[in-house]
């Protein structure tokens, strides 16, 4: 892949790299801060010129030929809902269980 442009998201956890493959296909590859590839997005059109993250890193603006395309980026969230309980993992790897009826919270490390 020939790299055209790359940018970090707003908190530095994902690097979006825009490029062109040997087959002349436009792709955007997403990498973690540790260099692990998360996902590849194929983008139709002619010549890709640039990309840019939106302020909260939920969208990408992609310049192709004389057009600007917008792509929604949906991050993977670590949560589950079952019965009346919502369980989720925070950035510190703390699991929180929240009962949506009684509003009781149980945190576990």
Automatic annotation (TrEMBL):
Alphabetized PANTHER family for the sequence: LD29485P, WD REPEAT DOMAIN-RELATED
Query: Where is the protein localized?
Result: Cytoplasm
Q: Name one Pfam family in it.
A: Beta-prop_WDR35_TULP_N
Gene Ontology biological process terms in this record: intraciliary retrograde transport; non-motile cilium assembly; protein localization to cilium
Q: Which GO terms describe its cellular component?
A: cytoplasm; intraciliary transport particle A; non-motile cilium
Keywords from UniProt, A to Z, are: Cytoplasm, Repeat, WD repeat
Q: What is this protein called?
A: WD repeat-containing protein 35
Superkingdom:
Eukaryota
Indicate the segments forming the IFT121/TULP4 N-terminal domain, all copies.
Answer: 1-74
Gene3D superfamilies per record: YVTN repeat-like/Quinoprotein amine dehydrogenase
